[in-house]
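pinned: reference chain
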Amino acid sequence: MLFIIDFDGTLSVKDTIDDMLEHFADPSWEDVERAWVDGKISAVECMTQQIRMVKADNITLEGFFRGIQLDATFLPFYKHISQFAKVAIVSDGLDHAVKVAMRNAAMPDIPVYANHLHFVPEGIDISFPNKVEGCAGGNGTCKCAIARNLAAESGGPTVLIGDGKSDACLAGRADIVFAKGSLIKYCEKNNIPHFKFQTFADVLTKVKTWPKEMPQKTTALLA
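pinned: its structure tokens
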């Protein structure tokens, strides 16, 4: 079994990128965001433009990353599922932000797949080591490709835990979906079976009801 866990707004309490932009970027970042939401630009174009708007020194940004608040119920959830499943944090956010936040919160060393942050004079830049040409979601980190590769190694069903637009494509392909935020609306609109959650305590409660032997129709586990 494989758990693919989103970071921004899922494992982190707030959307880390939006919070960073509100603190350190020109307000016009919101115009870029609207263009992405409206489908006028891709996620990669959106992220590239927004990240380059961030103006702060390394020390200030490192302090911001250390201050990212995580879902306090994640650790007991992880301790339970890591006994029988492979776990990966897969984010269309920034790898360095995820790793600093996890380390500062004394979280386990979980594999992280995300866009790469580069420090540059007076700010940051971004590159996309997990980009896949033809990604249906147009994301910098293709969650479908990563899930497919990891699932081939782990075997069993794939479980997605996410909250937003970057999770939408994988939601239609995962065996089990836990959704919050705008991902709920997407799942409802596209008739994708899902379980609504607010914290990882909700997810843990549901997972603990699953039988040791997975049934063939894994969507039944969300009933």
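why pinned: The chain has one domain: 2-222. The mean pLDDT is 94.
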